[in-house]
Specification:
This protein is mostly helical. Helices cover about 65% and strands about 0% of the residues. The chain contains 13 helices and no strands. It has helices at about 5-15, 15-25, 40-50, 55-70, 75-80, 80-85, 90-105, 115-125, 130-140, 155-165, 170-180, 185-200, 205-209. Helix 10 (about 155-165) crosses helix 12. The longest helix is centred in the middle third of the chain and has 16 residues, at about 90-105. The protein starts with a helix and ends with a helix. About 30% of the residues are buried.
């Protein structure tokens, strides 16, 4: 996703007062480049590392994991001792998932950059350990898809609840917002994530002012 696409999305989202508020605060800093990776197997493996751990913990584990696999090809990674990979701070299950990913790419050449999101999802979901959230993050940060919202991302859901004053958040209300943001759900998500990270949230008085 280019800077031009992000700017166009920000402009379109301004009709939503919450998005307008968040865009004013974070529109100049949001990016997908921080998790971009040309090696799709490595990208998915790093996303598995991120599953259900804090950002800080994930960063540390990812650096250790990258050091372990540095300079190795897929076959060599598959032949690594599981205990060595686990020493990066990973559970046995995550080591298994990571090896499943590398096996998937080792067995056949995969060109996900030329496939539709639906086709990518259908292919990747077959890998044990790669679920809907991991695929959605892959579509956003690696392939730059512009209209992705992850309903399974807790930080996103909490941000919607806080910014829109919707707690409890009914599924129909979330679907209505996703429809409203379309086809710019990725940028809406980036703004909502940043809101949680910075602990800056919209309140009705912000709009009244």
């Amino acid at each position: 996703m280019s800077a031009l696409q992000i700017n166009k999305a920000l402009e379109a989202l301004k009709s939503d007062p919450v998005m307008d508020f968040l865009a004013q605060h974070f529109g100049h800093v949001i990016t997908i480049s921080d998790r971009y990776e040309t090696d799709h197997a490595k990208a998915l493996a790093l996303l598995v590392v991120e599953q259900q751990v804090s950002f800080k913990a994930a960063y540390t584990i990812k650096q250790r994991f990258l050091k372990i696999i540095e300079g190795l090809n897929y076959k060599e990674i598959l032949n690594l001792d599981n205990d060595l990979i686990q020493s990066a701070g990973l559970s046995r299950r995550k080591v298994e998932y990571i090896k499943n990913i590398y096996a998937h790419f080792y067995e056949a050449r995969r060109d996900y950059s030329s496939m539709s999101p639906a086709a990518i999802s259908a292919s990747l979901i077959k890998i044990k350990g790669v679920g809907k959230w991991t695929i959605e993050m892959f579509l956003i940060f690696v392939l730059g898809e512009t209209d992705i919202f992850s309903k399974g991302d807790l930080a996103l859901i909490n941000s919607v609840k806080r910014n829109y004053g919707l707690d409890p958040l009914r599924d129909e209300d979330l679907d209505s917002l996703i429809d409203r943001w379309s086809p710019h759900n990725t940028v809406a998500s980036l703004l909502l994530w940043r809101s949680v990270e910075e602990k800056i949230y919209y309140t009705p008085k912000d709009h009244d002012a």
